[in-house]
Structures are given as C-alpha cells and as structure tokens.
Amino acid sequence: MEAFIALLAIPLFGGPFLWLWGDRPSAPEVNAGFSLATFAASAWLTAEVISGGPITAFGEQFFIDALNVFLVALTAFVGFTTSLFSRPYMRIERDKGKMTGPRLRLYHSMYQAFMATMLLALTTNNLGILWVAMEAATLATVLLVSVYRTAASLEAAWKYFILCGVGIAQALFGTILLYFAAERVLGAEGNALLWTHLNLVKADLEPAIMSLAFVFLLVGYGTKIGLVPLHNWLPDAHAEGPTPISAVLSGLLLNVALYSVIRCKVLADGALESRFAGNMMMGFGLLSVVVAAFFLSRQRDVKRMFAYSSIEHMGLVTFAFGMAGPIANFAGLLHMTVHSLVKSAIFFAVGHAAQKAGTQVMEDIRGLVKVSPTVGWGLMIGTLAILGMPPFGVFASEFLILTTAMREHPWATPFLLLALGVAFAAVFSRVQPMVFGDTHMKPLAHQPALVPVFVHLGLGLLLGLYIPPYLAAWYQEAARLLG
Amino acid sequence: MTPFTSQVINLFASVLLLIAFAMLAQRRIVTLINLFAVQGLALVGSTVTVAWATGQHHLYWSAGITFVLKVVALPLILHRLIRRLNVKWDIETLINIPTMMLVGIVLVVFAFNLALPISEFSQSIARGTLGIALACVLMSFLMMITRSKAVPQVIGFLAMENGLFFAATSATYGMPMVVELGIALDVLVGMIILGVFMFQIREQFDSLDIHHLEKLKED
Amino acid sequence: MNLEGLLAQLLAAAVALVGAPLVTGWVNQCRAWLQNRRAPPLLMPFRTLHKLFWKESVVAHDASPVFRITPYLVFGCMLLAALIIPTLSTNLPMATAADAIALVGLFGLARLFISLAAMDIGTSFGTLGARREMLVGFLAEPAFLMVVFTASLISSSTSLATTVSALAHREFTILPSLAFAGIAFTMVSLAENARVPVDNPTTHLELTMIHEALILEYSGRHLALMEWAASLKLFAYSCAGLAIFFPWGIAEANDHVALLWALPALAAKLAIGGFLLALIETTLAKMRIFRVPEFLATAFLLGVLALLVHLLLGA
Fold first, then answer.
1. Of the candidates A139, A184, A208, which has its C-beta nearest B117's C-beta?
2. What is the ipTM of this complex?
3. What is the pLDDT of residues A103-151, one digit of tens each?
4. CA A24 to CA B25: how far, in whole Å?
C-alpha cells in the first residue's frame, strides 16, 4: 500500500517540483533522482505483489495484479534509464542552441507528469480513470514533441494532438457504452466501471453493447498504439520530438495503450463468448505488421524508420493477444517487455548518433564505430536484437508467436514471415553503413550516457537466453488472466 | 417518467443536432464559438431535465460543471484567444457546403441505425437520443476533417466532447462523478495547451492555416 | 358530396378570390409603415386589377398559344390550390381529389407554364427570368416536399384536411420536428413567392428580378390574371402554413358555429402573418442570386432534419 502511494506520489510531486526548481544546472539530476525514486517504489511494489498477491487501494479504485505490475516495473525502469540518458543528451542539445532554459524546465516537469499519467493508467482499476489518464498522457507529451519549435515539430505535435484526441474520443464513447452495459448488471453505483467488478460479471454483460463498445475502444486506444490505419501521428511525433521522448513514447506509451486494450478485451471475451474481439485484434495487428514493414524501406530519417519498426512490433503483439491462448499471451507479454527495452536502447544510441552527425538523415550518418565505438556497437547490436536475431529476447517471443500462428492460424504465417523478412532487409541495409564505413564526424562535447543502452540490451539478451523462474511464473499468471 | 420531460429532452436533442449542422456550415469563427456556447447550454438544459425528472442528484453537479466549463470558461478562453491571435473576423472558405450537409444527413442516419439496437437496452428516459449523440460526435468529426484553420478544428474537437457527454446522459445517467471530473479537467488542460500551441504555430508560420502543417508526408 | 361541403367549398373559393388581393394589399401597407412611407390603401390591389381588366391586352406577333393560355392556366392552378387547402373548414369535397403532394404538383405546373410563356416571346429578360425561376423552383420544391412529408408523417396522412384536423386535435406536445419544418416552410415560401431576401416584388432591376421578369410581356387582362394568380399563390402558401403550423380555429365537418368563427380567426392569423412577412422583408437585405441555392439548401436541410427528428425521436 505504502509502496503504491509512493509510486504515484513521487512523479506527481516531481512534475510541479521541477517546474518550480526551474532551469538550474542540477535539474537533470533532480529529474533522474525522482525517476530513481519511482523505480525504487515500483520495485518495492513488485516485491509486495509477488509475495502477497494482487492488491487494491483507495476503495478498489486501484488494482495491481500480475498483469500490470510487470508493466509498472518496466515503465518505472525505462523511465529511470531514459532520465539518465537525457542528462548528457539535453546538455548537448542546449550547447547546440536547440534547447533553452525555459524549454528544459518544461521538459523536465512534463517528463515527470508523463510518468505519473502512465503509472496512473496502469494501476487504476476504474476504466473511466484509465481513459482520463490516457488523455492526460497525450496532453503531457504534446508540448514535448513540439519543444524544438521548428515547423516540422509543430506539425508533428499538432497531428499528434488532433489524431490522438479524436481517437481517444472514440475510446471515451466505448467507455460510455461499457459503463452502460455494466450499469445494467452492477447498478448505477460508482463501481460499475471498476475492472475487478466487471471481470466477475463479464458473462452477464449484454453482448450487443459489448461488441460495439469493444470496437470503439479498440479504435480509440488503437490510435495510441499506432495500429494501421490509425498510425499517422506516430512516425512524425517520434521523428520530430527530442530523442528521450521518442524512447519513452515507443517503449512505454504504446505498451500502456496496448495494456488498456487487453484489459478491455478480457471483458469483451467474457461477454461475447466468441472470437470477435480476438479476430479484430488479429486483423489490425496483421495489417500493422505488413504495412509498417513495407514503409520501413522507404524511410530516410533514422528515427522515423525506428518509429515504423515500433508500429510493426506493436502490430505483432496485438496479433499475439488476438490469437489468445497461454502461449500467445505469454509471447505477447514477453515481446512487450523486450521491445520496450531494446527499442528505447536503440533510440538512445540513435539520439547520440544523430547529434554527432548533426542530422537524422541516414545517408549523412556514416562510420559511427570509428568516432564512437560504443554508440556504433550499441546501435548495431540493438538493431540486430530488434530484428529478431537469436539469442535476443525478441527472437524468443517472435518464435513463440510464429509457431502459435503456424499451428492455429496458418494463413497468417506467410504474411508475418514476409513482413519480418522485408523489415530485416530494410533496416539492416540502412544501419550497416551507418555503423561501419568512412566518416568525418567529430566527437561530442559531453560524454554520452551509454550505460542505459547496454543495460537494456543486456536485459534483452538475458530474456532471450534465460527467463528467471519468478518472472516466467509471473508471465504465465498474467497470460492466464488474459485467457 | 412523464412524457413531458422526455419531450423537453427530445427538444434539446434536436437543438443539439441543429447546432451540429450549423457548425458544419458556419464560416465565421466568432459565430462558431457562440454556437459552441449555445450547444453547451442545450447540454446543460437536457442534463438538468434528466436530473429533475429522475432525481439523480449527481447530474445537477455535472450540469453545473458543464455550465461553468462549456458555456462560460471555454467560450471565454476561445474569445480571448482569437482576439489575441487577431483572427476574430477570419472567414474560412468552405467548399461545397451542400455536399457536407448531405454527408451530415447520411451520418445521422448511420449513427441512428448503429445506436438503435443498443438504446433499446437503456433505462434512461433520454434513451432515444443516443443516436443523436452519436450523430453529433460523427458530425464534429466531419467538421474537423473539413476545416483548414486551427481554431475551428479545436472547436470541432470540443463539440465532439459535447456529443460524448450527451451520449453519457442519454445511455446512462451520466458517468461516475470522479470520471466526469477527470474528463472535465482533461478538456480544460487540453484547451490551455492548445492555446499555447496556437501561439507557437502562429509564431512559426505567421498564420493559423493548417495547410502549413502538411509537410510531413511519406515520400 | 353533401350540400354543406359544397357550401363550405364555395365559401372558401370566395374567401380566396377576395382575400388574396387583400393580403397582398395588407403586406404592402405594413411594409410602407415599417419603412416610414405613406401607405397605399388596403384595397389598392383591387384597383390595380380593375384597371388592368379594362385595358387592352397587347400580345406579341410571334407569340404562340402557350403565351395566351398561360394566364388562365396559372390562375386556375392557383385557385385550385387555394381550394384544396383547408382555410376555413376541413370539410372540403375538393380536398379528397388532391393531397399535399398534388398541391406541390399544382405549383410546379404553374411554374412550368409561366416559364414557357416567358421564353415564348424570345426576349432576353423573359429567358433570364425563366431560368432563375426554374432554379429557385428546382431547389424549393424538394424542401417543400420535406415539410409536407413531416406534417404527413405526424398525422399519418398526406391529405391536407386530415393533417390539419389531426394536428389541431393532438394534445399539447413539444414537437421540434414541426418547429424545424415551420422554419423551412417559411424559407420556401419566401423564395416561392418572390419575396425578399430572394427576390424583390417591387423592383424591375434587371440584375436581380425573377418574378417581374417573367411577366414583363403581359398586359391588360393577362397581366391582371397573372397578378391575381401571384396574390392567390401568396394566399395559398400563407393558408397552408397557418393550417399546418397553427391549425386552431379551422372548422370541422358539421360544425356550423365553428365555421362562423373560422373567418375572423383566419383574418386575424393572416393579419399577423402578413405583418411578420413585412417585418422580414424590411429587416432582411436581398441576397445575391448566387446565394439563393445556399438559402434553399438550408431550407431543405431543415426539412430533412425535421423528418429525421420525427422518425428518429418520434418528436
């Protein structure tokens, strides 16, 4: 309980505090300190949940079980490492004149606010509050995407705001319908939107209402996951915002949005007793994988390319959850974890690479290994990991998803294999000359923070080779919850 | 339930629908803001009627929040914004209003057909209006698609929220209070952020035309 | 057909023939007052008609028979229209012959012949007027039909007499659909009767005129019939609007006392309606001809909305 209060209170307090702290030289360290404290609270909470089982708080308004606690831990962890990475990154940006004091102040306080909204979305038991938190997460990041105030970044942020705003409005309609269905069973008390209560009576929910509600919820939160054809905001926001924000958007926000969908899917499955929800998710997921893979080869901007790669992977996870069953769910959860770790590591490396080259255009970034071997190798290993090379974790989860698909939905396998192949060819052929090859770039003024990159990649490797038994038990428990 | 109260609710629902159409065709930004305020007022009216007819006291609170937020605060912010941005008398050239109207009518029919099987389950006295609510949402969506200026797009966004709120009262007796407060907070914060954002856009492009924001495309 | 019905029908015809120029005179009078002008006498239209009937009719050399028969045909159409609208009583033998859709058809027929006659002579004004008239009519007719359908759906009959008695006898309910239909109907009437803001009945400005351009070549008794037909049209529209939206005071079948009261009630309603029309005409500016389609599209939209609101909400 205390752990949980600390988890939400620290970033919630951190936002205003950093705003008041202002543009002092120590602000990045304070930011990292808050993130570290959040991570510590999440670790404490995780320990509590592992030892004592699911907990609820504040009159069941909050609920932490096996499914969301690992996402909470992951979110807090990546949030912490990203804040470490952003210390030197933002100092370099400031030296270049791209960031100013007031903008850094906004950046730091919004960073904490963003962490708070994501943790709120993950831990709330109330589906209405979940919506509020998802919308708040959009609001917190929209000014971060436009923080450079360039024409392109303003456009990206505007697109992000409008498209996600419209999308999330659909989710609100879905939530209203869900409440409507729930109210008939649970009465008009305040707990008709509480997921734990809904989960108990899900078989009694009216199927006609639930199917429509799920369509709206999937479209709404699917916009935030970046599912094709609702993905238009995603590459722009990732490419034009500052790199730490790209890392948390890709690594965390998409996960949180997907988490919202799977929570709703559990209810829809219970009410419908058909594969309707799963089939819809499979359809959207497969479309995202294929379309994103083909768009990958057409990119010139490195961050944009990896944004499309995020769409591809999120599509894969959505597909996995759509297939359902213990193995597919297990694979989906594992893939969420490793994708989050590896993708944020890649963005860290890419961020420093782009700073060195002074551009995000891939043709102008060459020979990273010669200038800064750590950045170069970090990018190379990260790319191999995200493309599903063994022995990284992505390989393990993709292997599980593919084998499940082959067994249960053989028609989908050729599309998945084709998409993965295309993605491999596209990304690898771009990254290889960026890392190796001739160069005339100069070293950076500040020592880049590469510890997070290798920590993330190390964890990704570890998950591919060996999943600790308590983690595996945890995944299985969560997969069982998903049905 | 007296038939008279449901008649009053139907009246407010049709006013909402009418305003949704009027917004679709309105060229002037100032009038658009006023229409938005009137839409908010109709929403307050219908919420109060439902609250009065059913004795659901929390609906009075949500009507109050709606009044403060959507009839007073947001229109005021918008009026200030357009004055500060100097776009008060801007007139947007809308192409093909009749076509948009026809699309709007199709949307109304579609929305109603979508909502029909569901509203039968509703116990709310305003259940017939669920289709209207969905139609308002879809039409605000259409308005956002067809506008090329930033402020009208934002008004479309807010009008969509109005439609959703109306859906909540017509399907059930409003969402739980804590959720409604959260939504209201989000809308307010969103509006403030958008205001900041519009200044940034104008600073960059010297105009609030969204056509400037179409550079990022796939090659 | 009983005797009573026949009498009521004859009375309606007499009221229409006499009332129509009176309404026109009243509107002109109100307009003059509102514009701070000295008003022409109320009976001015009668004097004009009288004068015109005694004048010689000049017809162009190459005018075809269409040109000659049109005034009679148009006058006949308008009179018939006035007869099937329940102005005083709903017990009208003629009303069984034609319903509200036929009413729209009658107006359409009159419009067709006016336009043909205007083009018949081959002057440029006639053609221009005919084209504009067709434009207005083409857009106004569907809007009018939507209004008619809404009223018919509410009363579940397209017969005007049944509609009016159904509407007059329902218990008090708020019907937003009827309100929308009322606004749409007002807009259509303004356009169809060549009033401001669509057309100005008092000018001969070639850039803007519609109705006057159509009858420019007529003179003498032909012109008198045309003018009378125009005022009959205004009368018919006013009565139709009053009957559908303010149906109180119209007599039922076999209700003699009510029939006595119906005439003063109609006069009062027409007086108020005429004043409001004059008020609209004074406060609004005439719009450019290119904006007329938009105006009528709005009317159509309101009509459709009325229909939708009725179908969807049952209100």
1. A208
2. 0.92
3. 999 999 999 999 999 999 999 999 999 999 999 999 999 989 989 888 8
4. 51
